[in-house]
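[recover] target loaded
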């Protein structure tokens, strides 16, 4: 995380015992809601997405697109890019390896896209423990997608254990930080 202190802000404090305000640069999250099947707390999704993405990279020139899709769109994407003809809850596309080829061409760079199907998330949430909710399921899918963008995977047992452990730690942190 990059923290910038403004010297002028520190000098302008009226209370010398007051902590200086810090300006924190944040990665940009673009939240696109392409579905109307499930009502969601979009503000929470955006706050959590920003919070998690900045644990990995806080460059304000980087963007993650989070697209909330209906079942038809996510099934089509799953078939096109993974050759799996079924609905899924989340798909991630990382463009981090393309960063160098776009260096200097644009001030913003999309490092990845996460497609989430809220309809599937709602079904997943129903099948969880009583302390689980749609909000938490959406948080899980956002975290899962961001981890994939940063090259975490769960294909091999060791990688799955590593990814799931990190995912659980981040979700516990989010639950504590955001009170969900």
């Amino acid at each position: 995380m990059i923290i910038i202190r403004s010297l002028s802000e520190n000098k302008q404090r009226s209370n010398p015992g007051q902590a200086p305000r810090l300006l924190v640069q944040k990665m940009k999250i673009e939240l696109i809601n392409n579905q109307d099947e499930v009502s969601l707390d979009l503000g929470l999704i955006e706050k959590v997405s920003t919070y998690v993405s900045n644990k990995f990279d806080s460059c304000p020139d980087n963007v993650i697109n989070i697209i909330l899709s209906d079942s038809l769109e996510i099934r089509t994407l799953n078939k096109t890019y993974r050759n799996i003809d079924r609905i899924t809850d989340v798909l991630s596309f990382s463009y981090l390896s393309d960063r160098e080829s776009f260096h200097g061409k644009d001030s913003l760079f999309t490092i990845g896209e996460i497609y989430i199907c809220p309809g599937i998330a709602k079904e997943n949430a129903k099948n969880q423990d009583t302390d689980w909710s749609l909000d938490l399921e959406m948080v899980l899918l956002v975290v899962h997608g961001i981890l994939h963008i940063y090259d975490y995977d769960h294909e091999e047992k060791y990688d799955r254990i590593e990814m799931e452990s990190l995912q659980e730690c981040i979700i516990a942190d989010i639950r504590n930080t955001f009170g969900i």
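[recover] notes: The mean pLDDT is 83.
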